[in-house]
Amino acid sequence: MDQLWLILKFLLLGLFQGLTEPIPISSSGHLLIAQYFLDVQIEGSVSTFALLVNSASLIAVLIIYREDVQRLVVNGLKYFTVKNTDTKRDFMFIVYLVVATIPAAIIGLLFQDAIDDKLSTIATVGLTLVVTGFGLWWIRNMRGQRKDGNMTMKDAVIIGGAQAVALIPGISRSGATIVAAMARGINQETALRFSFLLFIPISLGGAVLSITDIMKDDNLAAMAIPYIMAFLGSLVASYFSLKWFMNIMAKGQLKYFAIYCFIVGPLVVFAWFLLN
């Protein structure tokens, strides 16, 4: 019975992480909230769990954006031999993705442990959810006109900086990058695409950095089935959550996520205050 409950719990945690990863409400913040208020602890290695559920979300992103990824790779390589409008646009889009990855990569390498130790608290999550809400509310009515071919290096640096800020629990990565992109006048479709294609290198980098910790996971064999269930739950939930979010973005309804953050953030802080 205990093993069955463990498997079910990991499945639910995977579904929860996958549901909240694509949408702009911070999956890491909500996972902390679930662990704190529902007293749900992650048995085994937290690093292994994080790698599996994030890898599942990455696969979902790759499935949904597979045509964009294929086009970028083909045209990016072709640019070195055939220079035209399409190859230049896609080559520069790749360059901007690389540049936007750098701030979070550097800050993550230097300060991730400190962030985890000092800022991974319920009070922080409650406050930063409100910050996320303000960002989403700010851009709720923006309808930029700039597309892939109109992006600049300055855009990449600003969006990359926003992603670095999202290392703080409660600041949504997708929310921060979409807010930064749309505030720069980039249209909704390009902002969404850039945000989730930007998830690919940062997720791959995190996976590489986690390999050492996973190799030290003494419970890897014993936790194999719960880990697999968490992976599958996250994969399915991430796929459908991202498809749903793409529809929300197309309709320009980001305000509902802002309202959600405005409600949940103060409630989390208030509940934490009462319990402490």
UniProtKB/TrEMBL annotation:
Enzymatic reactions:
di-trans,octa-cis-undecaprenyl diphosphate + H2O = di-trans,octa-cis-undecaprenyl phosphate + phosphate + H(+)
Gene behind the chain = uppP
Write the record's keywords in alphabetical order, separated by commas. Answer: Antibiotic resistance, Cell membrane, Cell shape, Cell wall biogenesis/degradation, Hydrolase, Membrane, Peptidoglycan synthesis, Transmembrane, Transmembrane helix
Official protein name in the record: Undecaprenyl-diphosphatase
Protein origin, superkingdom: Bacteria
The further comment given in this record reads: Bacitracin is thought to be involved in the inhibition of peptidoglycan synthesis by sequestering undecaprenyl diphosphate, thereby reducing the pool of lipid carrier available.
Q: What class of enzyme is it?
A: hydrolase
Its main localization is membrane
Q: Which residues cross the membrane?
A: 44-65, 93-115, 121-139, 191-212, 224-242, 254-275
Localization of this protein:
Cell membrane
Query: What role does it play?
Result: Catalyzes the dephosphorylation of undecaprenyl diphosphate (UPP). Confers resistance to bacitracin.
Q: What is its EC number?
A: 3.6.1.27
Q: Could you tell me the membrane topology recorded for this protein?
A: Multi-pass membrane protein
Q: Which InterPro entries match?
A: UppP
Q: Which family does it belong to?
A: Belongs to the UppP family.
